[in-house]
Amino acid sequence: MVKSVVELIGEARAQIESVSPEAVSKELAAGGPVVIDIREPVEWEQHIQGALQVPRGLLEFVADPASPRYNPELEPTRRVIVNCASGARAALATLTLENMGYENVANLDGGLKAWVAAGLPVVEHHGDL
To answer: b/e per residue, 36-70, with b = 16+ CB within 10 A?
Structure first.
C-alpha cells in the first residue's frame, strides 16, 4: 500500500514521544539531553544553543555506532531530542532513531517554530555559516 507523507508523519507521531518546548528547555537546564537539529544547513539561521547539526539525510550514518560518521555524543542510551522547523521531519527522524535502538528519544513538538513562539532562546547566525 502506497502512503503519503502526511500518513507517514501521522503514523510516526502516533508511535513516538513528543515534548513541548518548555519541557525541553527544563531538560536542557538540568543538563540531560542532547538536541539534534535535523534541518538543512541553509536553515540554521537560528538554532537551540548546543544543538548538534545533523541534516536529515545523514542522520542514520551519524547515529549508527558502527558507521565511520558516528558522532559519539549520540549514545543510544542517552536522552535525545530531535527538532526541525515544525516537527514533521523530526517525527520521522525520531521514529528512525527508535528503530535504530535509541532508547530515550523524543520529538520537539512544533519544532523550532514552537520553540521561538514560546520565547525560548536561540543562537542567531547572519551571513555564511
So the answer is: bbbbeeebbeebbeebbbbbbeebbebbbeeeeee
Residues 85, 125: Cα–Cα separation, whole Å: 16
Measured distance CA(93)–CA(95) in Å, rounded: 5
Separation between Cα atoms, residue 46 and residue 70, nearest integer Å:
24
Determine the Cα–Cα distance for residues 59 and 46; give it in Å rounded to an integer.
20
Per-residue pLDDT of 16-46, as tens digits, reads: 999 999 999 999 999 889 999 999 999 988 9
Decide the pairing of beta strands 80-83 and 46-47: unpaired
Query: Each residue of 65-106: pLDDT tens digit?
Result: 999 999 999 999 999 999 999 999 999 999 999 999 999 999
Measured from the Cβ of residue 118, the count of other Cβ atoms closer than 10 Å reads: 13
Distance CA 112, CA 94 (A): 15
